[in-house]
Amino acid sequence: MRSLEMTATWHEEEEDVEVEEMELRKHNNGNNGEGGRDDLTESSSDEATGKKRRKHGGSASSGSASSGVTIRRRKTCISARERNLRRLESNERERMRMHSLNDAFEQLREVIPHIKMERKLSKIETLTLAKNYIMALTNVICEMRGEEKHYTFQDVESNSDVELETEEQQTNPTTAREQNNNNMYQQNLESHPENTMVNSR
DNA sequence: TAGGCCATCTGGTCCT
DNA sequence: AGGACCAGATGGCCTA
Questions:
Q1: Strand C: which positions are within 7 A of a protein CB?
Q2: Rounded to an integer, what distance in angstroms lies between the CA atom of residue A24 and that of residue A65?
Q3: CA distance A144 to A194
Q4: Whose CA is closest to A26, among A57, A68, A84, A56?
Q5: Which residue minimizes Cα–C1' distance to B3?
Q6: Which nucleotide lies nearest residue A99, CA to C1'?
Q7: Taking every annotated instance into account, which residue ranges of this chain make up the domain BHLH (predicted)?
C-alpha cells in the first residue's frame, strides 16, 4: 500500500523500456544518479518511519557496480515502472525486516542485566553483553557441577593477568564500561546465581 | 569538528 | 520466481 503511494513520487523513466535493451549503469557512490531518487527516498523515509528524512538513501555500490561497470541484464522484459515498483516493495520489506531486527535487539536489552545508563545500549554493546552474560551463566553452571570454569573474564583492576576473550574486545572503545558490566555479572553470579535471572528493569 | 551509531537504499546471493 | 538475507554506501543526529 505504502509502496504504491511512493510510486507516485518516483521520477518515471521512459515508459516501458525493456531491461534487456537497457544498459544499466549503476550510479557511482553517491555522486551520480541521485537526482532521480531524491523524491523517492524523502517521501518513503518519511512515510515509513516518521523519523528521519533521508535526502540520499545511499547508492548501489556492491559488486561491479562500485566501479561504474556497465551491466547488461538478461531477458526479463520488465518495464521500468514494474522495476521501480518491485524495488519499492523490496525496500519496504527490508525496512520491516530491519524493524523486526531492532525489536529483537530491544527485547534483548530488556533481559540483559546491565548498569543503567542515560542512553540505551548500542547494538554492539547489547550483543557483547549478551555474550558475556551467557559465558558467565555457563561458568555458574560449571561451578555448580563442580567442573572447571569454561570462560575467563578480564579483571578491570589489572589487565595484565587475564587475556581478552576476543579481538573485538581489544579494539572496542567501550570496553571499559562493558568490563564493568562483566564484573557485575561475575560478582552477582558467583554470589547469588539466582538473582541474575531477575530482570534488571 | 571528528567519530560513533543508526536508518535507509541498493544490488547481489541464497533459499524456498 | 520471488522473498529473505547480506554487505556496502551514504547522510543525519548526537556527543566528546
A1: 3-13, 15
A2: 10
A3: 12
A4: A68
A5: A173
A6: B7
A7: 85-137
| Residue A70: CB less than 7 A from any atom in strand C | no
pTM for the structure as a whole:
0.58
Q: Which of A45-49, A51-55, A67-71, A174-178 is the most confident on average?
A: A174-178
CA A78 – CA A169 distance, rounded (Å): 48
Closest CA to A84 of A177, A15, A184: A15
At A17-56, the pLDDT tens digits run: 333 333 333 333 333 333 333 333 333 333 333 333 333 3
Strand C lies under 7 A from the Cβ of residue A46:
no
- Asked if residue A113 has pLDDT above 50, the reply is yes
Listed in sequence order, the residues at least 6 apart from A25 whose beta carbon sits closer than 8 Å to its beta carbon are A33, A68, A70, A71
